Amino acid sequence: MEDGLSLLCLFFFLLLFMGASTAQMPGFVSLDCGGTVNFTDDIGLEWTADDQVIYGQTTNISVANETRKQYQTLRYFPADNRKYCYTLNVTSRTRYLIRATFLYGYFDDNNVYPKFDICLGATHWATIVISDADMIEVQELIFLALDSTVSVCLSNATTGQPFISTLELRQFNGSVYLTQFESQFYLSVSARINFGADSEAPVRYPDDPFDRIWESDLLKKANYLVDVAAGTEKVSTRMPIDVSSSETPPQKVMQTAVVGRNGSLTYRLNLDGFPGFGWAFTYFAEIEDLIPNQTRKFRLVLPGEPELSKAVVNIQENAQGKYRLYEPGFYNISLPFVLSFRFGKTSDSSLGPLLNAMEINKYLKRNDGSVDGSIISSIVSFYSSAEWAREGGDPCLPVPWSWVQCNSDPQPRIAKIALSGKNLTGNIPSDLTKFGGLVELWLDGNSLTGPIPDFTGCMDLEIIHLENNQLTGELPSSLAQLPNLKELYVQNNKLSGTVPFGLLKKNIVSNYTGNIDLHKGGNRGSNNNIIIGLSTGAAVLFIATIASCLLMHKGKKKYLKQDQLERTMPAQRLVSSLGDAAKEAAQCFTLLEIEDATKKFERKVGSGGFGVVYYGKLKDGKEIAVKVLTSNSYQGKREFTNEVTLLSRIHHRNLVQFLGYCQEDGKSILVYEFMHNGTLKEHLYGPQTHERSVNWIKRLEIAEDAAKGIEYLHMGCVSCIIHRDLKTSNILLDNNMRAKVSDFGLSKLAADGASHVSSIVRGTVGYLDPEYYISQQLTDKSDVYSFGVILLELISGQEAISNESFGVNCRNIIQWEPLMVATQAKLHIENGDIQGIIDPSLCDEYDIQSMWKIAEKALMCVQPHGNMRPSISEVIKEIQDALSIERGAESVKEGNSDEISRNSVHSSLNMDLGSSKHCLSIDEAIARPMAR
Ligand SMILES: *[C@@H]1O[C@H](CO)[C@@H](O)[C@H](O)[C@H]1NC(C)=O
Ligand SMILES: *[C@@H]1O[C@H](CO)[C@@H](O)[C@H](O)[C@H]1NC(C)=O
Ligand SMILES: *[C@@H]1O[C@H](CO)[C@@H](O)[C@H](O)[C@H]1NC(C)=O
Ligand SMILES: *[C@@H]1O[C@H](CO)[C@@H](O)[C@H](O)[C@H]1NC(C)=O
Ligand SMILES: *[C@@H]1O[C@H](CO)[C@@H](O)[C@H](O)[C@H]1NC(C)=O
Ligand SMILES: *[C@@H]1O[C@H](CO)[C@@H](O)[C@H](O)[C@H]1NC(C)=O
């Protein structure tokens, strides 16, 4: 019975031993995956074809402007439940950089981009998410080798097929990346930046003898080094830089820098893998000529980390001279995903700050893998020529070898070894008796010789199959000491002696037949050489049935069975339930599953333009929001699947997570994570808002979250995604009142329906960009317009569109005269009064400055012409400034000097909310000049 299962989960792996190359630098290995020839590239790196790999397939690709030979080929693997490993020789107790790169290039002609995992040994290294077919995805890790080999394994394809373009190993020979945590943590490289670079090309080998890639600060990619302060200039020198040790940044990197001529250097960048703890170092060398009375002193400023701002950098003093390296840093610092940092000059410094390079790595917890790892690798090395012995990586993690099953302990133990019919010779390896968690052992149908070893080291053993071998000697009486033994098969061997009495006494299923010299205990000398344990016929069957039921039950608890594996692999299910291309996608739920989860659509939690939303709970306890789309004009099944596949590739902390879909019985259903705190709209205007209104600082945080989600849609994805329908009911709040944007991508799904007219104007009255309405040209600035309206709602507590609030014939918030008048007053004369438009439920709990900042930005967002509106990133910056004002005020308040200067702006125009609901026409509103 278990044998059938093991057949089902046949995993194939590969193993490749690469020697230390005799190349350029000791300890460099450069594998050209899918390549067929060895070659040396332009920069002197020696590439080796991975042609010894027996699994996977190779293919050629061609990507515009990518001429490097190693990127003309790749190796890809089936999208199944297996792992595929490369094993590299390393020197133990040595630090290395390992780099894996992935250039997709549409090798499979599929319109679904691949997404899969890579592991270093048993440690989950990264999830590779391809989002641009022509861009090389790079993952780098710095590690201390503790063993003589290291494995990189690809597995768990959720979309597409796993593939790899290159695998590079670079040995360090010193201690620059030494940390006190290195036996438990790897350093995953997040940012390695060369400031003041000459071009977009990175600096690497041979400039960097260890071939680290120092990325140019000019490189254009989403959210990489934005918000650069005005007055930032690049400087460079040809003078040699004393970098003191060869593993600090190479001279070429240190010869360029940026200088903040206005006193500040500011940057914002996304740190992949963060938030978390990291290793962060900055590299400085004075490369400008300072005249005697000039000084350059500055401090690092990180938002929310005042302690870190105390140290003053004075490069020449710290480095003890010009053209010398100074490298302050943090061995362990907590960093956010979006890092904004500033270097600001001190008040007594005559020159602004200077920065040459920076390196940020994230600590990645090392997974030690199965406790049985070293024992099984000694067994495996004995059979090193057999395919099953060359699977590589950890025996259990992230998925077990084909012939192994493991229990679910955090550090898993091997529970089943299935080596039936593998042509094994010699003695039963004595190491097999050291697996403390072993439950099943299948060695039948081999050519094993010698005695049966003492298995009392494996006290959990339940099933032993040793039949059809050449085993000799007696049946050890120690077998009777295994408390859980249920099945023992030793037939057709060359065993002799008597069956131990202890075994005969036990209630086990057994077969001792076919051993000429083996006798039943107490019957020695009789001719009875055929012994069947217990009885015959019905009794045997009966007991076997009970035993197997027990085993099934127990086994389920202890280690993952095939059906459980399948449940963790949504991609597999789709393959069987859908047609051809584009099938590996988001999880496809059956209507039955959805009905179960929602208790037949029992609890409605919302409804909107796209459909009705129901609450649901999956079998594993996960809460979901199920959106049943109303329109039945959706495209055919295939287009729908393509579209939801696109959705499933969009991941951001400020976007509601898309979990899957269902299209059955004419119903189109989307499944999302459930957001406990409902919509922003409910919090602004819902029934309970009078008792507990959302305060200003919270509103700013919500605005920041939502804007970041939108920024990601606009800039972080492959092609810019325009939401088209931003509104307060599409901003959802989680348990911690953090906001996420929902319904992205749906406009497209709905609009491109049967009519095939893609420019149907969609959106919600009140939020709809007038320019888009007129021109039908959709741009990201249309979303900015809608976001401006949301900001106005946050300020005023007035709905974007209302039958009452704004007076007769005036339903739109931007036509609301008090708002217009107040804002223009502010723009024309310094002291406008916006009190009249501020939500009374904010109860003066806000700083007037931060309120103004948002009001002004909101008005910019709703400018009639898109090109006059700011980008969403600029809006984020303004919100963050407003937040820091509020937080500053908060801490002052906590410091007991209450209500300083709050709301103290002079009232020159006192607009009363109740009495002046005058309304401007939309044309009038737009026509009024906005001073700036
Ligand atoms: C890698 O190491 C193993 C074990 O020491 C050795 O047998 C093998 O030859 C090495 N591979 C190469 C290509 O040097
Ligand atoms: C490439 O070099 C490796 C060892 O350096 C060798 O084992 C392999 O056969 C070579 N492959 C080709 C295609 O020459
Ligand atoms: C490829 O390079 C050419 C010339 O260097 C350039 O004009 C073109 O824009 C590049 N194309 C891409 C896709 O980068
Ligand atoms: C595979 O990846 C998905 C997400 O991409 C994750 O939820 C799942 O746990 C992974 N499965 C395994 C076996 O690692
Ligand atoms: C530095 O010296 C220059 C002239 O050499 C002078 O103009 C300037 O004011 C001085 N600056 C300071 C900060 O002393
Ligand atoms: C079994 O092993 C023997 C000797 O090592 C070999 O000659 C034979 O081809 C192997 N058979 C199989 C099926 O692997």
UniProtKB/TrEMBL annotation:
Any single Gene Ontology cellular-component annotation: membrane
Principal cellular location given in the protein's record: membrane
Sorted UniProt keywords: ATP-binding, Kinase, Leucine-rich repeat, Membrane, Nucleotide-binding, Phosphoprotein, Receptor, Repeat, Serine/threonine-protein kinase, Signal, Transferase, Transmembrane, Transmembrane helix
Membrane topology of this protein: Single-pass membrane protein
Residue ranges of every copy of the Protein kinase domain listed in the record: 599-883
Catalytic activity, EC: 2.7.11.1
Signal peptide (UniProt feature, chain positions): 1-23
List of residues binding ATP: 627
Classification via Gene3D superfamilies: Galactose-binding lectin (2.60.120.430), Phosphorylase Kinase, domain 1 (3.30.200.20), Ribonuclease Inhibitor (3.80.10.10), Transferase(Phosphotransferase) domain 1 (1.10.510.10)
Pfam families reported for this sequence: LRR_1, Malectin_like, PK_Tyr_Ser-Thr
Taxonomic source organism: Actinidia chinensis var. chinensis
Transmembrane intervals: 530-552
InterPro entries: Kinase-like_dom_sf (IPR011009), Leu-rich_rpt (IPR001611), LRR_dom_sf (IPR032675), Malectin-like_Carb-bd_dom (IPR024788), Prot_kinase_dom (IPR000719), Protein_kinase_ATP_BS (IPR017441), Ser-Thr/Tyr_kinase_cat_dom (IPR001245), Ser/Thr_kinase_AS (IPR008271)
Protein name, UniProt field: non-specific serine/threonine protein kinase
Cellular compartments annotated: Membrane
SUPFAM superfamilies linked to this entry: L domain-like (SSF52058), Protein kinase-like (PK-like) (SSF56112)
Root EC class: transferase
Recorded catalytic activity of this chain's protein: L-seryl-[protein] + ATP = O-phospho-L-seryl-[protein] + ADP + H(+); L-threonyl-[protein] + ATP = O-phospho-L-threonyl-[protein] + ADP + H(+)
A single MF term (Gene Ontology): protein serine/threonine kinase activity
